[in-house]
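[Solved] Which block belongs to which protein?

Original post:
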Amino acid sequence: MEKYKLPVDYTKLPISEKKYVREQYIEEQNGKCYYCGEDLNKPAPKRITDKPINWKLFPSNFLQFPIHLQHNHKTGMTEGAVHNYCNAVMWQYEGK
């Protein structure tokens, strides 16, 4: 797998490369979520999933993928790999 110089501009990444950037973040984060710090192979913790999400704000397939590549919506730069639910919390509650 090609190593990327992180962070990278998410808005300029082809879809085919987003997977590899996400996998690199997972490796560099030792399999932990950038947001909550818990294991990405397990669901987001209850302290996160207890926050109600307005799912109408998100694409219908948002939960299809358990791990997302988080990026800053202002700069476009990637920040890390997160649980899908953590990604929703970050966007809805923190504007990330």
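(Second protein starts here: sequence line, then its structure tokens.)
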Amino acid sequence: MGQPSLSTVESRKNSGRKLILFANTDWYLYNFRRSLALALQQQGHELLLISPPGPYGEKLRALGLRWEPVPMDRRSLNPLREARLLAWLVSLFRRERPALVHGFTIKCAVYGSLAARLAGVPARVNAVAGMGYVFTSNDTKARLLRPLVRALMHAALDGRNARLILQNPDDVALFERAGFVDAAHIRLIPGSGVDCSRFAAIERVRDPSQPLRVLLAARLLWDKGLAEFVEAAQQLKAQSRAIEFLLAGDPDPGNPAAVPEA
């Protein structure tokens, strides 16, 4: 018998299927996918969350979620190490036998989907919020990696039982133009969503005697526009404008575009 289609898997969502969520940090799973994981668990699904090791893994477990560390180095370009990671994922998926693997960010989407195909997982869903370092950076290493990553993305993300979730029309156009994924398998959503029970708006009236504050809340990556933010701050300060510029975020050592804290 052939494998069930993605629509068949979706139609059985209340029958308690095993689902794997794969992200590049445990911090990402805890902060951005916790609500999704808990909602799926409440619907009767069996969840396994996987990511490289970190302090948030135990926080996920404390919520009653199953989490396992993955031997993955986000910055690694070593072919042997990457092959071992792929083999590890294939072995895990064959042992766990999930109905669906859901990957987040480019590397997890590609590696998770390739491993899922090799392990015979019936369905794959991937959410890519941005194209990542390889496609946003113009340095030599990124440009050299693009042809290989393009080929891997086509092999990993496309297929009858795969769906790709994107968050802006530019990425949809890029994927369709590059032929990574059949357009029928792409789903556009207006962002990841915000848990309003955790992030509630507070009504405040600004004190006109205090300087205007402008806050950039982001990981400290050049790709997030830090250089432009600093340039804007310098221009406005040169005009003696009463404005305070604030940064809220940490460097991301796993990303080649990270801005050193110093």
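Accepted answer:
You had them paired correctly. Confirming on the second one: The chain has a mean pLDDT of 86.
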